[in-house]
Design goal:
alpha+beta; five-stranded antiparallel beta sheet
Length: about 100
């Protein structure tokens, strides 16, 4: 038996494909979307009014059961659809929790 054939015997085997990914997804902590306080909502509204394409910002937002932070350049603002694009990620205004300017 060649060394390569012998090594194949000891490679990991997964009888249940996708089980590991499903368990990791189940482990993920799910956060609930919190209501903004009046002060937070005013601050967020003010930041949205001053937002422009090309501006570098950091945002905290709710995404599919978790809270994420992303930093980058605003590439697109769609006021009618109420969303923006940062680093190829589309973020709805309703999911925003915080916007920070002058990140870089």
């Amino acid at each position: 038996m060649t060394p390569a054939e012998r090594a194949k015997q000891f490679q990991p085997f997964s009888a249940l494909r996708g089980l590991e990914e499903a368990l990791l997804e189940k482990e993920r902590e799910i956060a609930e979307k919190k209501e903004l306080t009046e002060d937070m909502a005013e601050k967020l509204n003010s930041a949205l009014q001053n937002l422009s394409e090309g501006k570098k910002i950091s945002v905290l937002f709710f995404n599919d059961g978790s809270i994420e932070r992303i930093a980058g350049e605003v590439t697109k603002i769609e006021k009618i659809q109420k969303r923006m694009t940062i680093e190829n990620r589309i973020i709805a205004f309703n999911d925003l929790m915080e916007i920070e300017d002058n990140v870089y």
